[in-house]
Amino acid sequence: MALDHLSRVLLSELVEDGRASHTKLAERIGLSATAVARRQRALEEEGVIVGYHALLSHKVLGLGVTVIIRLALNSQSEDALSAFEKAVAKCPSVLRCFLMSGEDDYLLTVVARDVEDFEHVHKTQLSRLPHVARIQSSFALRQVIERPVLPPLQSGEGRHGQADR
């Protein structure tokens, strides 16, 4: 879907503050509150905006350990992939799960209170997932960047953040 400049600006503002009122957004963008509401509703209906979420501090919530997991299955059949995906979706410690190309089949992000808690998650959840052949875990030392959206949505910028030529 092609987005015009004002829709890109609106999206950038919503990424920064998803709770901003239509009036506040209108002031920032230079449109009326009604026009902002109409654009925002259209972006939601078209599936560009899929939801609004609170960004939580895992550390403050007592989840100080983040683990990146590379996982390989013993089969890449449709049934094996489907069974794995249904099971991993039920694991409460798994924040993200990506189907990958290359050597690993899945990449997971897991949070835990501490190393002992992660060991428990590994034993009781991850190692029991169907069709798992290999699990490799790497502990994140610290988060450097978390962006809510990529690439930048400013008009005139291409896929790599440089001006289109």
Could you list some keywords that capture this structure?
Arc Repressor Mutant, subunit A, about 35% helix, alpha+beta, 5 helices, four-stranded antiparallel beta sheet, about 160 residues, elongated, Alpha-Beta Plaits, 2 domains
In CATH, the topology of the largest domain is named Alpha-Beta Plaits
Q: Calculate the mean pLDDT score and round it.
A: 90
CATH architecture of the largest domain: 2-Layer Sandwich
Helix-strand makeup class: alpha+beta
What characterizes the major β-sheet? 4 strands, antiparallel
CATH homologous superfamily label of the largest domain: Lrp/AsnC effector binding domain/regulation of amino acid metabolism (RAM) domain
Number of helices: 5
How much helical structure, as a percent, in the residues? Answer: 25-40%
CATH class of the largest domain: Alpha Beta
Q: What is the topological layout?
A:
Elements: H1 5-16, H2 22-29, H3 33-45, E1 65-73, H4 78-88, E2 94-99, E3 106-112, H5 115-124, E4 132-139
Antiparallel strand pairs: 1-3, 1-4, 2-3
Care to describe what's here?
This protein is of the alpha+beta class and 165 residues long. It has two domains: 5-45, Winged helix-like DNA-binding domain superfamily/Winged helix DNA-binding domain (Arc Repressor Mutant, subunit A); 65-139, Alpha-Beta Plaits, CATH 3.30.70.920. 33% of the residues lie in helices and 18% in strands. It contains five helices and four strands; from the N terminus they run H-H-H-E-H-E-E-H-E. It has helices spanning 5-16, 22-29, 33-45, 78-88, 115-124, and strands spanning 65-73, 94-99, 106-112, 132-139. Strands 2-3-1-4 form a four-stranded antiparallel β-sheet. Strand 2 (94-99) and strand 3 (106-112) form a beta hairpin. Helix 2 crosses helix 3. The longest helix has 13 residues, at 33-45. The radius of gyration is 20 Å and the shape is elongated.
